[in-house]
Amino acid sequence: MFADLVLQQDAVSGLDDFDWRELGIAYGAPYFLAALCLYAAAITLAEKKRGSFAWYLMGCIAGFPSVFLVDFEAGWWRDPSAGEGVVAGAAAGAVLMAIAVWMLRQGQRRKPRPAPIAETASDESIGPALADEPAPKVRARKPVPAAVARQRAMFAAQGRKMLARQNRGRQAS
Predict the structure, then answer these.
(1) Span of 7-11, 114-118, 161-165 with lowest mean pLDDT
(2) Rounded to an integer, what distance in angstroms lies between the CA atom of residue 14 and that of residue 18?
(3) Which one of 26-30, 90-94, 102-106 scores highest in mean pLDDT?
(4) How far is the C-alpha of 84 from the C-alpha of 73, rounded, in Å?
(5) Alpha carbon of 71 to those of 67, 85, 120: distances in Å?
(6) For residue 83, which of 97, 73, 96 has the smallest C-alpha distance?
């Protein structure tokens, strides 16, 4: 609505016959509903619940009245006006967001694959099968720079002092 008023040749004359009381009913309600639906889509995505894509689609449909404010002329894509470009860009953004919501939704529905279970022969006991497995390798720690070593030593000393203070407070009580 705002874009329609601004893009007119004489914007002030468009305000003369404007019914301000119908503003909330005609334009506010669909966008408020769209905002609620898009908020619900975001919440369901964040909490990894079902229905996020449906909420997103309902939000896009509720925000659809803005398309009716702009007149699309034949061949508008060759030389789009400002309003046509804004609506087309918003539609493209909505499609890209729909793809993102769909992909995030699909990522939530996938279940992690279970780790493959090693098969053992039926005549072997469990003990020898476990004994054949190599022990896990312990990674050797790389030497740390002197500044990091000093910082770690300082943190350890502060921790020991704090524990000593806490122990003194407990013994006094």
Answers:
(1) 7-11
(2) 7
(3) 90-94
(4) 9
(5) 8, 11, 72
(6) 73
- Cα–Cα dist 65/25, whole Å: 12
| This prediction's pTM | 0.48
Q: Do 28 and 88 contact (CB within 8 A), yes or no?
A: no
The HSE-up count of residue 60 (CA atoms within 13 Å, CB side) is 18
| Contact call for residues 101 and 69 (beta carbons, < 8 A) | no
Tokens of 148: 């990091």
- Separation CA 146–CA 140 (nearest Å): 18
Q: What is the mean pLDDT of residues 143-170?
A: 93
* Rg over CA atoms, the chain: 32
**How far apart are the C-alpha atoms of 103 and 95, rounded to whole Å?**
12
CA-based nearest residue to 81, from 12, 6, 7 = 7
Query: Which residues have a Cβ under 8 Å from the Cβ of 33 and sit 6 or more positions away?
Result: 59, 62
The answer to whether the CB of 104 falls within 8 A of the CB of 50 is no
Under 8 Å between Cβ of 41 and 101: yes
Condensed to tens digits (0 to 9), the pLDDT of residues 123-141 reads 455 555 555 667 778 788 8
